[in-house]
């Protein structure tokens, strides 16, 4: 029997680096979240936030939903909201690639673009104003526990099972921080010795999907105690690695995935042995209108 579309979210494949990792004593795996039906890791959080909101009665078919997004969460929410008959307005900086805007609109969402110079913080401020004054309800990916819980319930268990409990290091980009917080929480419960590594943009670098938040905008769901170390990656490193992932590993991914992969492969060179899992959070076709490829 064919599966319901939403049942296809999760259980994404994980592949071992064949070329880029040159340390024979360390296994580096890439978890391919672009294989989700909405094309990114954000499908998991979006599904859990909407299902939790419906189950608790916080939202229903009459709710005016609104959410700030840099792209992938918005696409996931547009797809899943439509599946549940919900209307949603998605707010994002006008610097977002046109593929993201067009995809959200294709699913039937209203898309509002805010000035590029105020970034995602400005989009979040716009949403807060609409919630305060116009009766909108936001899912609040930055403060909604259902975001990180999605990864506690699915991403972490999948990685643990697929590595047969052999994982020693987990690497993820840090945006809303839901992926790293939820996955780390599960993995640390299985083995507290697993090292959790967060990817952050180097000073002066802007990388879609990776943030170094100003103090007023740090996501409420972020638990710094769950992250053992953060490592900086530059925009040029992330972009070059995204190209190499496609050309050398056959993995067509976005820039934040290139940033996480840079750190995972850098880390592999420092270990005598280990098993590293790095999140490939989306697909490269979301960036074709940029100059990356």
TrEMBL record:
All residue ranges annotated as the Tryptophan synthase beta chain-like PALP domain in the record: 7-282
Residues engaged in binding pyridoxal 5'-phosphate: 72, 175-179, 256
Catalytic activity annotation: O-acetyl-L-serine + hydrogen sulfide = L-cysteine + acetate
Enzyme class: transferase
Keyword tRNA-binding: no
Required cofactor names: pyridoxal 5'-phosphate
Record-listed E.C. numbers: 2.5.1.47
Pathway info: Amino-acid biosynthesis; L-cysteine biosynthesis; L-cysteine from L-serine: step 2/2
Keywords for this protein: Amino-acid biosynthesis, Cysteine biosynthesis, Pyridoxal phosphate, Transferase
Single Gene Ontology BP annotation: cysteine biosynthetic process from serine
InterPro entries recorded: Cys_synth, Cys_Synth/Cystath_Beta-Synth, P-phosphate_BS, TrpB-like_PALP, TrpB-like_PALP_sf
Pfam families: PALP
N6-(pyridoxal phosphate)lysine modification, residue list: 42
GO molecular function per UniProt: cysteine synthase activity
Family: Belongs to the cysteine synthase/cystathionine beta-synthase family.
The protein, known as: cysteine synthase
Annotated organism of origin: Sediminicola luteus
């Amino acid at each position: 029997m064919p599966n319901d579309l939403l049942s296809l979210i999760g259980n994404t494949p994980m592949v071992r680096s064949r070329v880029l990792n040159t340390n024979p004593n360390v296994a580096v795996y890439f978890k391919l979240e672009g294989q989700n039906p909405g094309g990114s890791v954000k499908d998991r959080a979006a599904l859990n936030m909407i299902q939790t909101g419906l189950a608790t009665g916080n939202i229903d078919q009459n709710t005016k939903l609104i959410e700030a997004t840099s792209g992938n969460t918005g696409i996931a929410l547009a797809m899943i909201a439509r599946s549940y008959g919900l209307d949603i307005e998605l707010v994002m900086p006008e610097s977002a690639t046109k593929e993201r805007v067009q995809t959200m609109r294709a699913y039937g969402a209203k898309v509002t673009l805010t000035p590029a110079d105020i970034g995602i913080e400005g989009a979040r401020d716009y949403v807060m104003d609409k919630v305060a004054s116009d009766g909108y309800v936001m899912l609040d990916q930055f403060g909604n526990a259902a975001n990180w819980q999605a990864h506690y319930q699915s991403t972490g268990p999948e990685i643990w099972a697929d590595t047969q409990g052999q994982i020693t290091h987990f690497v993820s980009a840090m945006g809303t921080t839901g992926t790293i917080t939820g996955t780390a929480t599960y993995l640390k419960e299985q083995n507290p010795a697993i090292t959790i590594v967060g990817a952050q943009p180097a000073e002066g670098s802007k990388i879609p999907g990776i943030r170094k938040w100003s103090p007023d905008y740090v996501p409420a769901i972020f638990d710094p105690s769950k992250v053992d170390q953060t490592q900086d990656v530059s925009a040029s490193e992330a972009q070059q690695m995204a190209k190499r992932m496609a050309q050398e590993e056959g993995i067509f991914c976005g820039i934040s995935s290139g940033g996480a992969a840079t750190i995972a492969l850098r880390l592999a060179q420092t270990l005598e042995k280990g098993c590293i899992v790095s999140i490939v959070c989306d697909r490269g076709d979301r960036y074709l209108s940029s100059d990356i490829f």
